[in-house]
Amino acid sequence: MKKFLLLIAATVMTVTAYAKDIKTVTFTVDPPMHCEKCEARIKNQLKFEKGIKKIDASAEKQAVTIVYDADKTSTAKLAVSLKKIGYAAKVKK
Amino acid sequence: MRLIISAIILFTIFPLHGAVKVRGGVTAEDGEPLAGATVIWVGSSRGTVTDEDGLYEITRPKGASLLVASYVGCVADTVSVAPDEKEVNFELKYNILGEINVNARGKGLRRLQGVENSSLMGRTELFKAACCNLGESFTTNPSVDVTYSDAATGAKQIRLLGLSGSYVQMLTENIPNFRGISSPYSLGYVPGPWMQSIQISKGCSSVKNGYESITGQIDIEYLKPQSEEQFNANLYGDSKAKIEANADGNIHITDKLSTALMLHYEDALADHDENKDGFSDAPRIRQVNALNRWAYFSPRYIMQTSINLIDERRKSGVSDHTIHSLTEDDIRQMSSFGNMLIKSRRYDVWSKNAFIIDPDDGRNIAIMLNYSNQTNDGIYGQRTLDSYQSTFYGSLMFETNASAPHSLSAGVSLNNDHLRHISNMSELVTRTTETVPGIYAQYTFNHEDKVVAMAGLRYDHSNLFGSFVTPRAHLKWNIRPNLSLRGSAGKGYRTVNSMAEYSYLLTSSLPVVFESPFGRDEAWNFGISSSWSFSLWNRNFSLAGEYYYTTFEKQLIADRESNPSVIQVLQSDSRSYSHTVQIELTAEPFKGFTVTGAYRYNDVRETYSGVLLRKALVPRYKGLVTASYTTPLELWQFDATLQLNGGGRMPAAPVIDGKAAWGSTFKSYTRLNLQVTRHWRNISVYVGGENLTGFTQKNPVVYLPSADLYDPTMVWGPVHGAMFYAGFRLNLKK
């Protein structure tokens, strides 16, 4: 019984691990970020979006790096979210 | 309910402006984001308030080019904004003089930079616990203790520097409030969700707000109508069948005028008798509370006005739970002692008006007015006491710029208290009026923000107690930017309405003798404190220590020692003092996790019939550990508070059949509170538990029917065991 449960657990874990499509995207924003206040504003907007794992907004690098679950959100959705607070976001190549 | 619905409709149908917006942030010179800072366009006076991260966004009216950011406690800054500029950031210098009164939403507890030893609890700190009202908001605070005066009325008392809360001056928006007959219940009069912040100042305070503060001041700032338009609602329920509902919203009517409405309802749906002594453990409280406030900001005139209405009922006595297991005779006898009902009605109206003479150097004249009116109709077992009080307070102040090396504040004030007591005990029937006009001046010297000295003097005249002088002085020395030392010395006076402040003693079946309707407290307070922030192993730490000594020259005391069978409320001029030492360490071991440990030792003594004794029911020490963890995206928050309360002495007990009615000491105990909060964009949900160690005082009500003794005032510990609660907060921004 124990082995059976372990097997199920292992399967479920493997499936979820495979199912999750974790991606990283880096945006540049317009208007550019000037300081930590702009960084905070961006973080506060994005943190409530679905599928967000990690946000790093840096005025110094002029980059917003987001780790997200591609099954739950997309770069387009994230850009729309940033648009709501007045930032036009472009994917940094 | 209709009001709430209309408020929701109002907020949802508001059109969005398509106008040009300017945004940015406001920080203090040390980089600390300033939440609640005011940002206004000069001329048009379109204004906003920064959010919890110190950020703002403001619509730009046509032709506006000068933007001013101001924050009480900081020097205001004006910036010229070019037509195409979209972002303006402010860095405000601390004005480290005089009273500092800051509203922070971001950080939890902050130590303030002023010359006084003050700390500020913002909404983050307040939301770490269920915080249903002002009284419950100090659970996470090491400096303030909250205790029940008795198990019947449930009146809550705070203790600061080991002394009763009556020596602390209560202010709402920097105006003295909740005095006299409202003081026993006033901690329940300010619902938690209505508060923007609470400022606690220890020591003798400044002379600006009168002569009354002895051990300190607690100032409550309510939510502001001028802040960003929003609607908030909150529902709360707990395992003790208490429910609460709050709603508030604000609207900007014009560029200059804004208003906010706050509503509160609470009710206890059932009573509890956990120790099965037949009496309710705590009263059932039902309260309806409404507050409407207005703000008007123009470059030369600022007005803030508020009206608050409160209706409250407190009921306790024989518990519904145990009533069926008692005989009729038992019920009759228990009811004749223990049935208590207090109905309170209160309204207060205050208005603050500032006329800015010179916006450049901050010279202004301010007028503060406050009128309050309260009735308490009380039945305490066989005794009745109906009290009425009306209070008028007016103050006119002149101030010069607080950032200059020399600054001056001067003013006149008038306080009038009218009190009436009607009772079935003829000796309690009284009628008194006290009128106190006063004048003050306060000078502050600032040497390059390195050394700040503040000295104030008041002269007041009471029609009951004659003329008196109040001197107070403060000194702050910034030894290094991260290390400061403060000292203060000063005098305080208080007219005490004995029946108003000690009405809870009437719940005891023992005879209560009030020597006179009015008493007088007169005391000196001396204190030194130091705070130091430092880095170790790449982590930030802050360490604070303080010592305060309060000594009374005159004091109204409740003497239960001279004759344990009688409670005497009398004027004493014998030795009475308090020494308190407190040490507090805060650390952030890893990102998102902060922990604070604090320890305070109290030595409080009073003289009864020539014998100096430790004050009864005051714990000898208090330890506090709070830990708070926020996940990296700040979606989850975990808070834990562990209180260690020391033991102490009990009042002398009447001896019945050769046996003392209660013990001579009480033991130490610990209390654990936990809370988990999950934030979404517009909703936060919280669940938690209080007193999870489950410790309760066995007999908060002393009842010996054979000797006709009933006394619910021997409370020193929790009356409720573990309690669980849940609630949510809704926040909708335009």
Kindly describe this structure.
The complex is a heterodimer of chains A (93) and B (734). Chain A is an alpha+beta fold and 93 residues long. Chain A has one domain: Alpha-Beta Plaits (2-Layer Sandwich), CATH 3.30.70. Chain A contains 3 helices and 4 strands. In chain A, strands 2-3-1-4 form a 4-stranded antiparallel β-sheet. In chain A, strand 2 (52-58) and strand 3 form a beta hairpin. Chain A is elongated, with a radius of gyration of 17 Å. The N and C termini of chain A lie far apart (51 Å). The mean pLDDT of chain A is 82. Chain B has 734 residues and is mostly beta strands. Chain B folds into 2 domains: 2-92, Immunoglobulin-like, CATH 2.60.40.1120; 109-733, Maltoporin, Chain A, CATH 2.40.170. Chain B contains 4 helices and 47 strands. In chain B, the strands form 8 sheets. Chain B has a 22-stranded antiparallel barrel. In chain B, a hairpin with a 4-residue loop joins strand 45 (702-704) and strand 46. Chain B is globular and about 85 Å long. Chain B starts with a helix and ends with a strand. Residues 3-18 and 95-107 of chain B have low confidence and may be disordered.
Task: Give a summary of the structure in a few sentences.
The complex is a heterodimer of chains A (93) and B (734). Chain A is an alpha+beta fold and 93 residues long.
